[in-house]
Amino acid sequence: MKPAIRVFVTGTDTEIGKTFVSTALSAAARSKGLRVGVMKPVASGAHATPDGLRNDDALALMSAAGETDYGAVNPYCFEPPISPHLAAADAGVDIDVRHIAELVRNRVEKYDCLVVEGAGGWQAPLGRNLSMSDLALALELPVILVVGLRLGCLNHAALSAQAIRRSGLRLAGWVGNRIDPAMSRVQDNISTLEILLGARPLAVFPFGAEESERLVLGGQMLAHLVDDYDHSLSI
Q1: Is 143 within 8 Å of 164 (Cβ atoms)?
Q2: Contact present, 25 and 221 (Cβ < 8 Å)
């Protein structure tokens, strides 16, 4: 029996490697023969193409998973590289998390592994009285927290993990991603994160990891999730 892995990937901030981690997990799952689906439900910072707006993060996810239907992967896409709630307001669009949840449920049974990547951090706003955490709650998926390893990450990670757990969703694990090559005492910080978050990382990505190394680390994440999926990783 193949595992039914479904996860929501969030981060301690924007530009800390959510897509880096999500594509690694997706590519590793695909390399193991699993049917992989990806979604980036909301994205801003897109470029115009003959086929419409396209976001680089969504395209990277599609490439890793072998997806071809852009609209199914990224239903809310905005051109300005600004917070999604501002981009949506400028476009006259209301982001509907119930609509996104329905799209996910319509796709979920097609895949052995479904990776849904958020935008920004856990509380990034999507509209008036609406945040990324509301989307995660509507999807009811276990959460992977990507921690950008740099000065200040301990506080950001602890607050994010606390908010995730208080929401009632399960923190399936955390991933360290070294985004500051000059960061001091990296291993000491990782050890502190293990204490603060109550778990060892699913993987730690070094700064500038090559594709082959990312695939190995994605496989490491996958192995942890497969071991755990029987305990609530399926919808």
Answers
A1: yes
A2: yes
Report the distance separating Cα 145 and Cα 225, nearest Å: 13
| 110 in active site | no
* Cα dist from 75 to 11, 46, 149, 204, whole Å: 21, 13, 30, 30
Q: What is the pLDDT along the chain (235 residues), one digit of tens a residue?
A: 566 899 999 999 999 999 999 999 999 999 999 999 999 999 999 999 999 999 999 999 999 999 999 999 999 999 999 999 999 999 999 999 999 999 999 999 999 999 999 999 999 999 999 999 999 999 999 999 999 999 999 999 999 999 999 999 999 999 999 999 999 999 999 999 999 999 999 999 999 999 999 999 999 999 999 987 654 433 3
Cα gap 91→125, rounded to integer Å: 16
* Residue 208 CB neighbour total at 10 angstroms: 9
Burial of 26 (0-12, 13-18, 19+ CB in 10 A): buried
Phi, psi of 207 (to 5 degrees): -65, 130
Q: What is the distance between the alpha carbons of residues 195 and 207, in angstroms, rounded to a whole number? A: 23
Residue in 18, 32, 40, 110 annotated catalytic: 40
Strand pairing partners for 148? 177
Measured distance CA(200)–CA(115) in Å, rounded: 21
* Calpha distance 67→61 (Å, rounded): 8
What's the start-to-end Cα distance of the chain, in Å?
Answer: 16
120 three-state secondary structure: strand
